[in-house]
Amino acid sequence: MKRNHGTTKRIAADALFTALGLIVFLIESLFPPLFIPGAKMGLANIFSLAALVLYGPADAFAVVAARTLLGSMFAGNIASLMYSLTGGCAAMAVSAILIYALYPKVSIIAVSIVAAIMHNIVQNLVFVGISQTALTFSYMPYLALLGILSGAIVGLAVMLIFKRVPLSVFERACGQKLEGKTCEKQ
């Protein structure tokens, strides 16, 4: 029976990114919201963005889905799943499009900023749709500003990870040589 060690390593890498994102999410959930009710910095997105850049959209979506599901369960707030999952998937979709269509013409920081703004907009739209409270549209400018700040921080963190962690660490998880490309692109 032939085993695919590359796939096993990728699943392990996805699990590691999910676990790291979940830890950061749980720590971040201990702090009060930033300026707007429910607003967080979104530092757990560092690991889903890193998974996207390194391993591709399928792995990144798996990390987002697992982290948001487990995060909602562990934080005791399953109701937040509809906001987090829709916002996370929309942000990841935009990130994947930007990474695959425009990278390296646009930076990881720019991708992260656009994704954070998209995440906030989608979460607000879901809230408006559920609550039928259009007044929360007035939060959009503040959510955009918060998205710029949090997206820049997340993007910078991902860039620092890629600068400081040797590529060989990620190649072992991928099971093949990256040579400046993601595992997905080869």
Characterise this structure:
This protein is mainly α and 186 residues long. The protein has one domain (5-174): Orthogonal Bundle (Arp2/3 complex 21 kDa subunit ARPC3), CATH 1.10.1760. Helix content is 71%, strand content 0%. Helix 2 (45-55) packs antiparallel against helix 3 (57-74). The longest helix has 25 residues, at 140-164. It is globular.
How far apart, in Å, are the first and last alpha carbons? 25 Å
Any idea what the radius of gyration is? 17 Å
What overall form do the CA principal axes indicate? globular
Number of domains: 1
CATH architecture: Orthogonal Bundle
User: Which structural class fits the helix and strand makeup?
Assistant: mainly alpha
Q: Which percent range describes the beta-strand content? A: under 5%
Mean pLDDT: 86
Q: Care to count the β-strands?
A: 0
Any idea of the CATH topology? Arp2/3 complex 21 kDa subunit ARPC3
- Provide the low-confidence segments as ranges: 181-186
CATH class: Mainly Alpha
The helix/strand series, from N terminus to C terminus, equals: HHHHHHH
Number of DSSP helices? 7
Helix content class = over 70%
